Amino acid sequence: MNRTPLTHERIFREEEFAGGYARRHQKMAEKFGHECAEKLTSRGFRTGRILDAGCGFGGTALVLAQRFPDSEIVGIDLSEPLLRLANRNAQAAKLERRAKFEIGDVEKIPYANHSFDAVLNINMVHIVENPVQMLDEIERVLAPEGFLFIADLRRSVLGFIEKEIRAALTLDEAKHLLSPSKLRAGKFSSNALWWRYET
Asked: Is 62 left (phi over 0), alpha (psi -120 to 50) or beta?
């Protein structure tokens, strides 16, 4: 199956669309939050600064805020409706002092070099205009001994059922895309729906 264009805007500007997206993806976001937390814990992470680059409505980041109560969680996104949802969700969970959600471009991350101990990037590689620039920015803000977790949809025959999968990359395309980036060495894994790259 050939790759097709996105079926939605790159930046969600409509409140109603953003709300529907959040409702449909809440469980998936929480699942990734728990998966990231388990991986971080297994690698010895206890406290530090975590960046969710492309945080959307904050579902993944808020799980990390709950799992790592001594850490600061920062989420950036360009969708104002999704960020409003993220900040409301943080307030509802009483996590707004440790989980901050701000306007920020993943292709020009507004933070200093090596300012995060962990960076996650979920479901963004197939959406952004310049994925290599985004990956280079992620590497720039990640501390030398920091942890990296990237996951994105994997194009497969499931695209016949779910349109968004048609816009995603195959595992081989993802490997080819990441090769010119400045990302540190990591390892790929995949299943029927997702590919992952992590350190």
From this structure: alpha
The strand pair at 194-198 and 187-190 is best described as antiparallel
Whole-structure pTM value = 0.90
Within-domain flag for 84: yes
Q: Which tokens in the block code for residue 76?
A: 């950036």
User: Does residue 136 lie within any of the structural domains?
Assistant: yes
Let me know: does 107 contact 133? Beta carbons within 8 Å. Answer: yes
Question: Partners of 76 in the beta sheet?
Answer: 53, 102
Q: Which domain holds residue 88?
A: 15-198
Q: Which CATH number characterizes residue 47's domain?
A: 3.40.50.150
Work out the average pLDDT over 117-146: 96
103: nearest Cα among 75, 141, 142: 75
Task: Write out pLDDT tens, residues 168-198.
Answer: 888 999 999 999 999 999 999 999 889 999 9
Question: What is the identity of the amino acid at 138?
Answer: I
> Is 197 strand, coil or helix?
strand
Task: Give the C-alpha separation, 26 to 35, whole Å.
Answer: 14
If one counts the domains in the chain, the total is: 1
Contact partners, residue 151, CB within 8 Å, separation at least 6: 32, 121, 122, 123, 194, 195, 196, 197
Residue 141 structure tokens: 């803000």
